Structure formats: structure tokens, C-alpha cells
């Protein structure tokens, strides 16, 4: 359980850092992604994008 929590947390950090590049291909704007502004800063929590990319990585891992 702790390993999965750490993995999801790490994926959220990586996706948040690469969000400007990923928005060009459509990720980061899925219905499950949360965006909000606080003190003139925009915060993004890409939950749906993380799940989508995890499923894609799982499928690739199963094929290899």
C-alpha cells in the first residue's frame, strides 16, 4: 500500500512539472484533473492524466 501511494505521489509531481509540454498533446485538461488559483498562482493536480499514463505504462509493460 505504501509503495502505491509513493508511486502515485511521484507521478503527480512528474506530471505537474511537465504539464506545459503535456498540455500541447491534450493531457492535463481531462475531466478528472483539478486546477485552481490561490494567491495569484495556478495549481494543477492531474489525477486523471496520472491514471491514464499509468494504465498506458502498465499496458506497455505487460506487452514487453
Verbal overview:
The protein is α+β, with helices and mostly antiparallel strands. The protein has one domain (2-63). The protein is built from 3 helices and 2 strands; from the N terminus they run ααββα. The chain has helices spanning 2-17, 19-23, 47-63; strands spanning 34-38, 41-45. The chain has a two-stranded antiparallel sheet. The longest helix is centred in the C-terminal third of the chain and has 17 residues, at 47-63. The model has no long low-confidence stretch (mean pLDDT 83).
Distinctive features:
64 residues; alpha+beta; two-stranded antiparallel sheet; 3 helices; 2 strands; 59% helix; 16% strand; globular
Blueprint (SSEs and pairs):
Layout: H1 2-17, H2 19-23, E1 34-38, E2 41-45, H3 47-63
Antiparallel strand pairs: 1-2
* Low-confidence runs of at least 5 consecutive residues: none
Main sheet record: 2 strands, antiparallel
Count of helical stretches: 3
**What is the distance, rounded to the nearest whole angstrom, between the alpha carbons of the first and last residues?**
25 Å
Succession of helices and strands: HHEEH
Q: Average pLDDT value?
A: 83
Radius of gyration: 13 Å
Q: In order across it, which strands form the biggest sheet?
A: 1-2
Helical fraction: 55-70%
Number of domains: 1
- Structural class per helix/strand content? alpha+beta
CA-based shape: globular
Query: In percent, how much strand structure appears in the residues?
Result: 15-25%
**Number of E strands:** 2
Amino acid at each position: 500500500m505504501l509503495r502505491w501511494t509513493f508511486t502515485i505521489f511521484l507521478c503527480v509531481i512528474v506530471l505537474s512539472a511537465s504539464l506545459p509540454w503535456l498540455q500541447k498533446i491534450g493531457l492535463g485538461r481531462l475531466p478528472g484533473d483539478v486546477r485552481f488559483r490561490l494567491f495569484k498562482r495556478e495549481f494543477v493536480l492531474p489525477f486523471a492524466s496520472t491514471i491514464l499514463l499509468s494504465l498506458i505504462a502498465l499496458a506497455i509493460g505487460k506487452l514487453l
